[in-house]
Amino acid sequence: MTSVAFLLLDKVHAIVLLFLFLLSLQCTYIEIEQVPKTHAVVLSRPSWLWGAEMGANEHGVCVANEAIVTREPASESEALLGMDLVR
């Protein structure tokens, strides 16, 4: 009985992973492909956008977003924000 439940659980996980792999991910302004494997994270994010100000993952890697001032003109096309990259 345990092996049957374990096998069924594996199939469920396989279906979920396949589903997640095929999905695209809607970021703040653009859509990108979802990666096949993700890690657990703790994030601090504003409610008005998809990205995050700062966060840490299950492996202890910490990252944060910082605004910079530049004289270069911004691109006319939409792209990933720094906050999207943090997430």
Please sum up the structure shown:
By secondary structure, this protein is α+β, with helices and mostly antiparallel strands.
Describe this structure in words.
It contains two helices and five strands. With 87 residues, the protein is α+β, with helices and mostly antiparallel strands. It has one domain. The strands form two sheets. The chain has a three-stranded antiparallel beta sheet, with no helix packed on it. A two-stranded antiparallel sheet has the order 1-2. Strand 1 and strand 2 form a beta hairpin. The longest helix has 21 residues. Belongs to the peptidase C69 family. Secernin subfamily. One of its GO terms (molecular function) is dipeptidase activity.
> What's the number of extended β-strand segments?
5
Q: Roughly how many Å is the radius of gyration?
A: 18 Å
- Rough shape? globular
For the record, give the distance between the C-alpha atoms at the N and C termini, rounded to a whole number: 40 Å
Family: Belongs to the peptidase C69 family. Secernin subfamily.
GO molecular function: cysteine-type exopeptidase activity; dipeptidase activity
GO biological process, one term: proteolysis
Pick out its properties.
87 residues; alpha+beta; 3-stranded antiparallel sheet; two-stranded antiparallel sheet; 2 helices; 30% helix; cysteine-type exopeptidase activity; Peptidase_C69; dipeptidase activity
